[in-house]
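Hey, I'm writing a tutorial for new members on how sequence and structure tokens pair up, and I'd like a real worked example in the thread rather than a made-up one. If someone can provide the structure for the chain below, I'll link this post from the tutorial.
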Amino acid sequence: MHFIVVGAGSVGTLLVDLASRTRNDVVVIENDTTRANEIANKYDCLVLNDDATREEILEEAGADRADALISTLELDATNLFVCLLATELGIPTVVSVLHQPEHRELFRKMGVNAVKSPHQLAAESLYRTARQPAIIDYMPVEGDAEVFEIDVTEQAPIAGQTLKKARSDEVIPDDVLVVAVVREDGNEPQIARPTTAIEPGDRLTVYSERGTDPAVTDIFGFFDDYR
């Protein structure tokens, strides 16, 4: 594949490293001379020490044959402008780092897939771990909805019940769905079915429309999570 990476900061450099390992054709556009030289000396890729907001530079980078452009600049406005140029030039996949969440809708309207800054994601993950240590891993879906992993404690209201009974007894509300179960002594996840009995020590993958609200984590026996 032919990738154009705009920006050779920490995120851009990681992208170049990943793309280069898998033998992709990578072109980097970096306006800072020092950064451009560092990438050129370290990786086997074409580096253009120039301004990606100029259409002719994107054309020089091979926009006519590019499979994707990823913009990793430090300002959302600049990223959006680069992505709009890329879209006009017919690059099929255009992705950008997103620094301000309130700009996501603007990127979406312009047909650009915007991904949160890794620094913001890391900060959110650290904060979540400190605030709710019961949550092993999580993935935002849309709005407040999340998919997360959590272990079942001995005190959990759901422990010892089938999912069907827990649902009928309103232990599990309508906006929460147990998707998969990994047994304490097992390795492979099992699809959660109505007849699946939940036991202490099970690790569950859960979808919740209200995220990891304390009322949701209570179901699995974590009553002391932050409220």
